[in-house]
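Let us work through a complete example step by step.
Step 1: write down the sequence.
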Amino acid sequence: MTAKAPEAPAAQVKAGRIAVEALREVVGLVKPGVSGAELDRAAEQAIRDRGGVPAFKGYRGYGATLCLSINEQVVHGIPGERTLADGDLASLDLGVKLDGYYVDTAVTVSVGTSRPEAERLRQATEAALGIALRQARAGNTTGDLGAAVESYVTEQGFAVVRDCVGHGIGKGLHEDPSVPNYGKKGKGSRFSAGQVVAIEPMVVAGSPQLKLAEDQWTLSTEDDSLASHAEETVLITDGDPVRITPVTDSLGDPGTLSGEKADARVTKATQNTGSR
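Step 2: predict the structure and record it as tokens.
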């Protein structure tokens, strides 16, 4: 894992606030008839207006600020002229780079009139993220987290995606460790205080098998079943994690801190444990 200077997590917290504000602003624009391109322009403007840099734009050739994945699309959907329709399920995923450090966050929303089956999937995904956050603490393993997520998701009648996983994040957008949404208790990498990771359950209503679109980015369910995605960047501590990108307020309270309180907690954690 990449070593970080003591101030690095605080820089990520600042980037996290930009990401949260930008994503919430974009979510506020979601409605039937709005195009992906419109949402993408709004996302880039919101990030840049706050002093951040879109993390995805230009990353490995990706051409947009936002990933917009609709209905059966799981992740990495490219926003274009396609407009959202009433009843769609839309995942909005964005990243921010600030002072050399990255954050990554995503949320799924229903467009207009929500469909019961889509809303149940969305809520289960958000709940799965909350369960994951409670496992994300020093001493636990990625297998502990993955086992808890998969158990809950399976109980709800859904499946977790195995081809895409969460990840460490810092000076690189994707770093070690990998954080899958499946696993066995006690297996995998062990979390340590001071790590920063992006945790992201990707949950599908049908088969977890994926297919890649001709654009070489968009991943969709092979059986065209609905998909949902939720993601937060968090700082691992000896207790509950610090949620650096707390996009929603309905995940319980596993260390729900932002703003000055988060800055203070990040500083204290890195001083006491050393930085990642």
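Step 3: interpret the result. The CA atoms of residues 22 and 112 lie 20 Å apart.
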